TrEMBL record:
The keyword Nucleotide-binding applies. It comes from the Bacteria. Keywords: GTP-binding, Nucleotide-binding. It comes from Bradyrhizobium retamae. The keyword Nucleotide-binding applies. InterPro entries: CHP02058, Tubulin/FtsZ-like_C. GO terms for molecular function: GTP binding. This is Uncharacterized protein.
Length: 116
């Protein structure tokens, strides 16, 4: 089964207090999907659940991201979430209250329907 990439969206999310990479990642995914209207899949003879959604989250500490929680931000399709090193951590002027900025790349694809 080959996939046809249909949409690529980018988003950004921030956690201002708490250094919560998962919260920033979820906000980045929500930001990315607000940019698209996915009604076109009906023209392809597909449903929303036929989508494959590959999400890459970039944060300073990828081990701090709960990828299952991030996947729940996407209501349809087969979702795969990967966290990689990136994003930003902006240190506080005093104390440990850093700002975490996450970036998300959301790629939507469909099975091309061909076999072999």
């Amino acid at each position: 089964m080959a996939r046809v990439r249909c949409i690529t969206e980018m988003g950004m999310g921030v956690d201002v207090h708490g250094r919560d990479a998962t919260k920033a990642a979820k906000r980045a995914v929500s930001d990315a999907i607000r940019h698209s209207s996915l009604g076109f899949f009906r023209m392809l003879g597909k449903t929303a659940n036929d989508m494959f959604v590959d999400v890459t989250i970039a944060v300073p500490d990828p081990s701090g991201v709960d990828t299952a929680a991030v996947a729940k931000e996407l209501p349809y399709g087969t979702v795969y979430v990967t966290a990689v090193t990136g994003g930003l951590e902006i240190p506080a002027e005093s104390g440990s209250d850093s700002i975490i900025i996450a970036n998300a790349a959301v790629i939507v694809s469909f099975d091309d329907g061909k076999t072999g």
